[in-house]
Amino acid sequence: MTELRIGFIGVGGIAQEHLRNLRQIGGARVAVVCDVDRQRAELVAGEWGARSYAEYEPMLDREELDALYICVPPFAHVGQELVAAERRIPFLVEKPIEVGTAYAERVAAAVRGSGLTTSVGYHWRYFASVERARELIGDRTVGMALGYWMDSMPPPLWWRQRHLSGGQFVEQATHVVDLARYLIGDIVQVYAEMATRVLGEVDDFTIPDVGTVTVRFASGAVGTFSNACIGAPGPIALHLYLKDLTLEVGGHLTVRSREDVQEHHEHPNAYQAEDEAFLHAVRTGDTSRIRSPYGDALKTQRVCVAANHSAETGQPVRLTP
Length: 321
Known about the structure:
The protein is an alpha/beta fold. It has two domains: about 5-125 and about 270-290, Rossmann fold (3-Layer(aba) Sandwich); about 125-270 and about 300-320, 2-Layer Sandwich (Dihydrodipicolinate Reductase, domain 2), CATH 3.30.360. About 35% of the residues lie in helices and about 25% in strands. The protein is built from eleven helices and 15 strands. The protein has helices spanning about 15-25, 40-50, 55-60, 80-85, 100-110, 130-135, 160-165, 170, 175-185, 270-285, 295-315, and strands at about 5-10, 30-35, 50-55, 65-70, 90-95, 120, 140-150, 185-195, 210-215, 220-230, 235-240, 245-250, 250-255, 260-265, 315-320. The chain has a nine-stranded mixed sheet, with helices on one face. The protein has a six-stranded parallel sheet with strand order 3-2-1-4-5-6, sandwiched between helices. A hairpin with a 4-residue loop joins strand 9 and strand 10 (about 220-230). The radius of gyration is 20 Å and the shape is globular. The mean pLDDT is about 95.
């Protein structure tokens, strides 16, 4: 089996998860890495016997790669995906795919119809519990979805600034929105209320610290997604309400019916399943195991950005499926 040559743009934070997985999966070698923190890039490069760069353009100019991982904060998507698409390099990019949607629309247009393999890091889609939930839903009618991302404020300074992160709904609650889309279908209307109630005196804090978003799905189902970053961690999950059945979905699955309650707990590495699907597609051309290609992830991004817009204007936002 030919060893795949992999490049990384960004090797902090979430990239470490993917780097660990690549060692477990095998058949792929990290050949080059790029990070604005040159010391961090050199450290990871040393662990893999790879070359390191401080800028992505020279790296992509000089290196022949089979696939690329893009693991940068929301504000730092400044052309990496477009260059990869131009050079026909398959890429996996971490969520969220940017702060807004303008750049992501350009990327989606660049890969649309090209056959280029892409994947976005919505790893919740790879939980076995999520697939079990899809089986249970089947052709049943979903009436309502209730999603939650209740947590404390993450430490990165960029996270608390709207123009750098997009806010909590774009940066974190996007996972719950994406899971609802995966299980129910597209969202066609968004209305949001957001406020800064507790953290307004925190330095450089320019995002809402609480919010609730009401949506309508193309199927006719309705839902709400609530998020907060003001206290101790709370529920991070999605509840689905069907006739005679309630599902709580996340890294686990709780199934409530009139007769009983069933708990399905699991501790798989969903990131590894995501990486395996991506590398399999790169190697074989079979993309059927990739659950979040770029074009689909853009639909989730549109919902999250529409929520911010609705909160600012006080008006609902209509979306085209």
